[in-house]
Amino acid sequence: MAEALQASSLLSSLSSDGAEVELTSPVWQEIYLSGLRSWKRHLWRVWNDFLTGIVPASPLSWLFLFSAIQLAWFLQLDPSLGLMEKIKELLPDWGGQHYQLRGLLAAALFASCLWGALIFTLHVALRLLLSHHGWLLEPHGAMSSPTKTWLALVRIFSGRHPRLFSFQRALPRQPVPTVQESVRKYLESVRPVLGDDAFDRAAALASDFLKLQAPRLQLYLRLKSWFASNYVTDWWEEFVYLRSRGSLMVNSNYYLMDFLYVTPTPLQAARAGNAVHALLLYRHLLNRQQIPPTLLMGMRPLCSAQFEKIFNTTRIPGVEKDYLRHLQDSRHVAVFHRGRFFCLRTHSSNGLLSPRALEQQFQKILDDPSPACPLEEHLAALTAAPRSMWAQVRESVKTHAATALEAVEGAAFFVSLDSEPAGLTREDPAASLDAYAHALLAGRGHDRWFDKSFTLIVFSNGKLGLSVEHSWADCPVSGHMWEFALATECFQLGYAADGHCKGQPDPALPQPQRLQWDLPEQIHPSISLALRGAKALSGNIDCHVFPFSHFGKSFIKRCHVSSDSFIQLVLQLAHFRDRGQFCLTYESAMTRLFLEGRTETVRCCTREACHFVRAMEDKEKTDQQCLALFRVAVDKHQALLKAAMSGQGVDRHLFALYIASRFLHVQSPFLTQVQSQQWPLSTSHIPVQHTHLFDVHNYPDYVSSGGGFGPASDHGYGISYIFMGENMITFHVSSKKSSTETDSHRLGQHIEDALLDVASLFQAGQHLKCRFRGLGENSGYRRGSLSSKTVDPKVPTTSTNL
């Protein structure tokens, strides 16, 4: 997603005023600190599990084991084979009257030791099982007998009801690939986009690197992988995100949309009340680890570490690098409306406020007639400024308005009550969706606190959206939370017939606290400068969102093709038609099969994809020839995707080698060339994870419409897509208006044409091109119903299982 831009900006993040920033820490010290941070996180998770009553196994299992030992002892059986007698001898002699107490203590100690040994054995066995990735190599839709056996063992050792962090101690560490293989894959990936001379230079640099610098750098990486939980993630978060000095807006954040065709209520305060309540219910489940762990394909657990910082987290700016501040709890949200900031308490002495009570509080904010104070209205534009500038100004803000700043940065999350409507309209569906996406991604430059982990945006007509800061986690994690919130507020909480939240108002609630910013006039020029920069950045972004309803995932399944590979090849064809050339293409793939894994890059512009695209543009090629090349390209993409997911990708390894070279002050022209590459096409597939929460067949409109992000280069595109149910795909395209080479709407039309052209290669899709081509530019906006509908509040609450 937006990480492609951050990754391509790595070199600039390691330079200051044109001079390279020296990483003066010895590499041995950095490896030690990485290991220390990993163990601190590990110990904190153990302590947090203890505090919440969730230890490596249920306390009931220890009680059952202790009871079984006591029963065996009562039946004059010794399951410890004499160990309990040895333990009793070591206990203090309190006299004969305490003989039974010594027996109970000995049994408890033996049960605890046996219980811990069993848990340790289970974790080791499970880690060995989870280190197996042969199942990834299975043909699509098939499963061999060894894989079925492996899956059965994983389920046995996983326990009956695993919790969110149950697998964290059993997940394997991400492996360090061989340098030779990573370099080979890199050269293979750039061959389609480089001329002969440029490729020969790249190959020569690679050869020199393998001979001179690679062995030493690889040695340090392997050493780091023994100490740290993940050999790349801490460096990735620091150097790609936290050391980036550019604006977070557009460059780093991404957005998530509401339902596309329905609005549960047109009342802004009611929608805000239900949404905030649903999000805080999710936080409660998260704190209690009552959210089931994510299972890939329903069988392989993924790392849950990124869930820890969803709430109560703020990215604090620094002069050289930022840091993430995470609080264990926060009982308020910060609210922005018409240039004013409020602190809204979300809990009372009885616990979390009801949705109706929250609606009441939001309505008080909406009805508050007080004007914004000087410097307050545009203050949040500073969070969209370059990070070093904001870090310096923040010191002055903290000095003069510490209470207000703490209320914002210490909030569970940020809420922006927008004064304008948003969402799909019948009058101009295309322009309204584009404006909706733009409002979520950038807003007006001063109405989002971009430092917060996420901002909930509630528009005046009841539409919702999220703006998410990227450094703390990747999109699937925030998407998991967002799907839960949408399903909960619509199907579990619901709305009354008049559109208000269910329940009764609470007249005893105090007025939301208006935050006071006593700021000096000296920061006015900084706010003005930040606002001009934010508006310029916002005004330069061209967003285009379009739902494609001619076919969807169900059709692609009938073609026996991976849906993601299908779309990626469509994007290659569309981009070639748009630009007349091939380019490096970034697709984000998760590496959460490993402990603290984040993402890896799938380089989708392969030689096989190029052959397919050229064949599609060659009128002499038959559909059968194009289809054969298509399947070869799909197989190649699937191989690259599986390699990336199993820790055998290219980019994260080369990135870690580059950072190691900087710590060691080793000059590597090859690694510098790799890190300076641009990504003209950055793509991401947004998965739908809570399929059990949405009744797609009976309520097809209740599906999240995904989200988007900014382009990764000045002359490039950012594209995300989501499969909405079985028969629709929504695309989010972005580019920069300042570029004369890109146009988001033009590429969107190429994508629609390419989808129909590729579908027509299959027998099941040969009718699509003739049927839908030429129906007009609005043909993709769904079955003749283009308006955003208000939901019947009588939608049954039994369609979800919460």
Automatic annotation (TrEMBL):
<dbReference type="InterPro" id="IPR023213">
    <property type="entry name" value="CAT-like_dom_sf"/>
</dbReference>
<keyword id="KW-0276">Fatty acid metabolism</keyword>
<keyword id="KW-0012">Acyltransferase</keyword>
<feature type="transmembrane region" description="Helical">
    <location>
        <begin position="104"/>
        <end position="126"/>
    </location>
</feature>
<keyword id="KW-0472">Membrane</keyword>
<dbReference type="GO" id="GO:0005739">
    <property type="term" value="C:mitochondrion"/>
</dbReference>
<dbReference type="InterPro" id="IPR000542">
    <property type="entry name" value="Carn_acyl_trans"/>
</dbReference>
<feature type="domain" description="Carnitine O-palmitoyltransferase N-terminal">
    <location>
        <begin position="1"/>
        <end position="47"/>
    </location>
</feature>
<dbReference type="GO" id="GO:0004095">
    <property type="term" value="F:carnitine O-palmitoyltransferase activity"/>
</dbReference>
<keyword id="KW-0808">Transferase</keyword>
<keyword id="KW-0443">Lipid metabolism</keyword>
<keyword id="KW-0812">Transmembrane</keyword>
<dbReference type="GO" id="GO:0009437">
    <property type="term" value="P:carnitine metabolic process"/>
</dbReference>
<dbReference type="Pfam" id="PF16484">
    <property type="entry name" value="CPT_N"/>
</dbReference>
<feature type="compositionally biased region" description="Polar residues">
    <location>
        <begin position="785"/>
        <end position="802"/>
    </location>
</feature>
<dbReference type="GO" id="GO:0030425">
    <property type="term" value="C:dendrite"/>
</dbReference>
<dbReference type="GO" id="GO:0008474">
    <property type="term" value="F:palmitoyl-(protein) hydrolase activity"/>
</dbReference>
<dbReference type="GO" id="GO:0005789">
    <property type="term" value="C:endoplasmic reticulum membrane"/>
</dbReference>
<keyword id="KW-1133">Transmembrane helix</keyword>
<dbReference type="InterPro" id="IPR032476">
    <property type="entry name" value="CPT_N"/>
</dbReference>
<keyword id="KW-0378">Hydrolase</keyword>
<comment type="function">
    <text>Palmitoyl thioesterase specifically expressed in the endoplasmic reticulum of neurons. Modulates the trafficking of the glutamate receptor, AMPAR, to plasma membrane through depalmitoylation of GRIA1. Also regulates AMPR trafficking through the regulation of SACM1L phosphatidylinositol-3-phosphatase activity by interaction in a malonyl-CoA dependent manner. Binds malonyl-CoA and couples malonyl-CoA to ceramide levels, necessary for proper spine maturation and contributing to systemic energy homeostasis and appetite control.</text>
</comment>
<dbReference type="Pfam" id="PF00755">
    <property type="entry name" value="Carn_acyltransf"/>
</dbReference>
<feature type="active site" description="Proton acceptor">
    <location>
        <position position="470"/>
    </location>
</feature>
<dbReference type="GO" id="GO:0030424">
    <property type="term" value="C:axon"/>
</dbReference>
<keyword id="KW-0256">Endoplasmic reticulum</keyword>
<keyword id="KW-0966">Cell projection</keyword>
<dbReference type="GO" id="GO:0006631">
    <property type="term" value="P:fatty acid metabolic process"/>
</dbReference>
<protein>
    <recommendedName>
        <fullName>Palmitoyl thioesterase CPT1C</fullName>
        <ecNumber>3.1.2.22</ecNumber>
    </recommendedName>
</protein>
<comment type="similarity">
    <text>Belongs to the carnitine/choline acetyltransferase family.</text>
</comment>
<dbReference type="InterPro" id="IPR039551">
    <property type="entry name" value="Cho/carn_acyl_trans"/>
</dbReference>
<feature type="domain" description="Choline/carnitine acyltransferase">
    <location>
        <begin position="175"/>
        <end position="752"/>
    </location>
</feature>
<feature type="region of interest" description="Disordered">
    <location>
        <begin position="782"/>
        <end position="802"/>
    </location>
</feature>
<dbReference type="InterPro" id="IPR042231">
    <property type="entry name" value="Cho/carn_acyl_trans_2"/>
</dbReference>
<feature type="transmembrane region" description="Helical">
    <location>
        <begin position="60"/>
        <end position="83"/>
    </location>
</feature>
